Amino acid sequence: MRRSVYDDDQAAFRDSVREFLRREVIPHVGEHAEQHGFGREMWLAAGKQGLLGLEVPEQYGGSAAGDYRFNAVLTEELAAVNLALASSLSIHFDVCAGYLTSLTTPEQQARWLPGLASGEQIAAIAMTEPSGGSDLAALRTSAVPEGSGWRLNGSKTFITNGYSADLVIVAARTTPGAGARGISLFAVEAGTEGFSKGRRLDKVGMPEADTAELVFEDVLVPAENLIGELDRGFKHMMVNLPRERVGAAVSNLAHARAILDETLVYVKDRQAFGQAIGSFQHNKFLLADLVTRAEVTQAYVDQCVVAHAAGELTAVDAAKAKWFTADVQGQILDACLQLHGGYGYMNEYRVARAWKDARVTRIWAGSNEIMKEIIGRDLGF
Ligand SMILES: Cc1cc2nc3c(=O)[nH]c(=O)nc-3n(C[C@H](O)[C@H](O)[C@H](O)COP(=O)(O)OP(=O)(O)OC[C@H]3O[C@@H](n4cnc5c(N)ncnc54)[C@H](O)[C@@H]3O)c2cc1C
After folding, report:
1. Which residue's C-alpha comes closest to atom 24 of ligand 1?
2. Residue 107 banded pLDDT, cuts 50, 70, 90
3. Could you give the count of Cα atoms lying within 13 Å of 196 in the half-sphere of its Cβ?
């Protein structure tokens, strides 16, 4: 089905992103997997291409596109290359940029946004802790007032871009015993005394992604690094998480569709019993099912993109898009792997790597169970 969500400007932008990826990223995917990260050069090249400043005002080196559809186009194209690329860059140009542009003072913007747009400062956001990620209100990292600043102690885990990050948005408890009402957000810069990074975590999939533990031991954070309002960090996260979830939905589906397209080519070519694999009725019906599932889901995701661009996307609709696309992605990739037979289980085949990569999308950015919790609560339960 023809999609109507994007106009000529976004189509031209998509072409430029594809060209950038062909030139600067795709030739290096093997290296990215080996080094568990994308390397500074890629970040700087993406910054130079204007991909990291979609949210950043022009005065700070960005393009402030002012239309979420550009973010969605970029996320789709990154996810079509691989999921790690989409997650690492989206956390930076979309998620962190969202916090750093909407909650910051002009002085903070002048300090952080130019590096964000140029790729000189890689950003990460650290909410999850070893003791739990779903129950954010129970987080334990503490920030105690000291002099004009804050003394930060605690640890975070599973942080995307964590190892390479120059600037980390950290959620910490500022009022003990106050639950969700006692959490604040801080920017912690790499190199600050007491802030250390653990190893790059060894994951089931996405070897290209840098995912790390972060440790804060008596880190002195200056008062001017508080992001947003004191004790309102939980509220700030709840306002910003739908952005992360619609981005996840865009990425989940684009990733699955890229592999489905490749599989359609494969099953036309691969023969068994003297005919193309895809032409057996079982497989033909399966492919019809997958293509329908992808297109119908796309219609919902596109509506979410439009709603988010208009500032109207609800947290509940973002939760629906996030869990449903993660499930659809899992169904599509599992079937695509099966259709590749033994080759589908070989790491040299993209479908095998994509299948492993995709398992995480039902867990991160709020697990599918937590998404259903949000939807269920909205239903009055
Ligand atoms: C590769 C990767 C990258 C990530 N990147 C980041 C990042 O950049 N920043 C960040 O802050 N975090 C990040 N995360 C963390 C991620 O958001 C958490 O893993 C996720 O929120 C789940 O938290 P948890 O792992 O502590 O699981 P838990 O909270 O311990 O949950 C375990 C299981 O219990 C289920 N569960 C929990 N509560 C309920 C409930 N009320 N009802 C039903 N089931 C429930 C969960 O759905 C899950 O299945 C990342 C994770 C991964 C794997």
Report:
1. 133
2. very high
3. 5
